[in-house]
Design brief:
alpha/beta, Rossmann fold, seven-stranded parallel beta sheet, 43% helix, 15% strand, globular
Length: 255
């Protein structure tokens, strides 16, 4: 699909992967709605792209439905949905003092990352299914963001890995269902990408992470590289129902 002239929604578009993706889509001529809980970031990106900033907590049903309604009014129903909204935090299943971990972090991580992705998919796909078909009878494209942690979760990443593994699991059944409407579903599983989330990692640990990359192995991935892959997925009609690792050959060690 050529995105020029079509509407696109990018969740988590106020920073990191979402920001880079929103900017690239806009440069290619898409009308972009930037969804984020952080309106400062969303408004900045919307201003730079000529798009619209919409407040959205993807883990909240009412907030997300309201955001999609606002997007329809502002730029029209979206043919492209890129789900970048997500959080990451670590916690051991059994704490060092022998006590069990709390349940709150797991619940929150799954709510934002996994349920939030599903929540946006269900509304976005319903909107796309009603649009007139384009070339190849295509009506829309959904790109979800998982992580290599979905496959090689490290110690302390139980919540994060479970949420990202769930996103991987959404892809195939969703693509099989939505194919009848001409809607494709793809998943990107990034490795170490230089984003505000990774900026929180101590410098000595960041350097050690390079060792798990095959090549390039002297830097982290760039948000622009994620954006370029997302755009390629949208543009290539034969990409569907699969997961693409964007990780420089990374295989994460246990810790």
């Amino acid at each position: 699909m050529d995105v020029k002239g079509h509407s696109a929604i990018v969740t988590g578009g106020g920073s990191g992967l979402g920001e880079a993706t929103a900017k690239l889509l806009a440069r290619k001529g898409a009308k972009v709605a930037v969804f984020d809980v952080n309106m400062t970031g969303a408004e900045r990106v919307a201003k730079e792209t000529g798009g619209v900033a919409i407040e959205c907590n993807v883990a909240d049903i009412a907030s997300t439905e309201k955001a999609f309604e606002a997007s329809r009014k502002a730029v029209g129903p979206a043919r492209v949905l890129i789900n970048c909204a997500g959080i990451g935090a670590g916690e051991l299943l059994v704490k060092k003092d022998g006590s069990p971990s709390g349940a709150e972090l797991f619940q929150k991580t799954v709510a934002v990352n996994l349920f939030g992705t599903f929540n946006c998919m269900r509304i976005g796909a319903a909107d796309m299914s009603k649009l007139p078909p384009l070339a190849d009878e295509e009506r829309g494209v959904i790109v979800n963001t998982a992580s290599v942690a979905a496959f090689e979760g490290q110690i302390g990443q139980i919540a994060y890995s479970a949420s990202k593994g769930g996103i991987v699991g959404l892809g195939l059944p969703a693509a099989r269902e939505l194919g009848r409407y001409g809607i494709r579903v793809m998943t990107i599983a990034p490795g170490y990408i230089q984003t505000p989330l990774l900026d929180q990692v101590p410098e000595n640990f960041r350097t050690a992470l390079f060792a798990s990359q095959v090549f390039p192995n002297k830097r982290f991935g760039k948000a622009d590289e994620y954006a370029a892959l997302a755009l390629s997925i949208v543009e290539n009609p034969m990409l569907n129902a699969s997961v693409i690792r964007l990780d420089a050959g990374t295989r994460m060690p246990p810790k």
